[in-house]
Amino acid sequence: GAGVSQSPSNKVTEKGKDVELRCDPISGHTALYWYRQSLGQGLEFLIYFQGNSAPDKSGLPSDRFSAERTGGSVSTLTIQRTQQEDSAVYLCASSFNPLSSYEQYFGPGTRLTVT
Amino acid sequence: GENVEQHPSTLSVQEGDSAVIKCTYSDSASNYFPWYKQELGKRPQLIIDIRSNVGEKKDQRIAVTLNKTAKHFSLHITETQPEDSAVYFCAANSYSSASKIIFGSGTRLSIRP
Known about the structure:
The complex is a heterodimer.
Chain A: E1 5-7, E2 10-13, E3 19-24, E4 31-37, E5 44-50, E6 53-56, E7 65-69, E8 75-79, E9 88-95, E10 105-106, E11 110-114
Parallel strand pairs in A: 2-11
Antiparallel strand pairs in A: 1-3, 3-8, 4-5, 4-9, 5-6, 7-8, 9-10, 9-11
Chain B: E1 4-7, E2 10-14, E3 19-25, E4 32-38, E5 45-51, E6 56-59, E7 62-67, E8 72-77, E9 86-94, E10 100-103, E11 107-112
Parallel strand pairs in B: 2-11
Antiparallel strand pairs in B: 1-3, 3-8, 4-5, 4-9, 6-7, 7-8, 9-10, 9-11
């Protein structure tokens, strides 16, 4: 079946521009996570959705970052006034069980480059 | 906040030898401990997980052990092969803040031919 998809796969933007990243989770998965991974680094947690609500936004680096999820499905991560340090791969993952005790399925990621 | 610590950050072993990666967690309520493998340029994928009602789980050359008293768990890879080269992440669920998975910082495993 279809896995987690993300778009775009690559995004190059100029410093100061806004970008929107999209995640389509696996159908029926209630939990959705956003992570950021800089080159050669670990998985930096950004935000977590349970249905359409975000119980934990603690990982968002600044108020330039926001995310929403509609219809319990698609999620968008928006970065306003992008900075060079925002350059990274942004990974989305979804999981079936709301108690976070089941496998997370990762998308292929969006590679963001801020010039 | 709750966290998961992982070590070593890098590990190099001779092909055919064993590799061990260790993690500790802080939330005593954690009861699910997955391990993910991320090959170069690819997305992380689950390779094995363990729940708190068991102390050890094996899947061919991979095994995980869990010590709930000490709050640590380990990944053991035996008879390592070149395709085992990757970054490995441990993780634990946490109920203290909104119930989510917390990842360790990763271990880059290299297999020497």
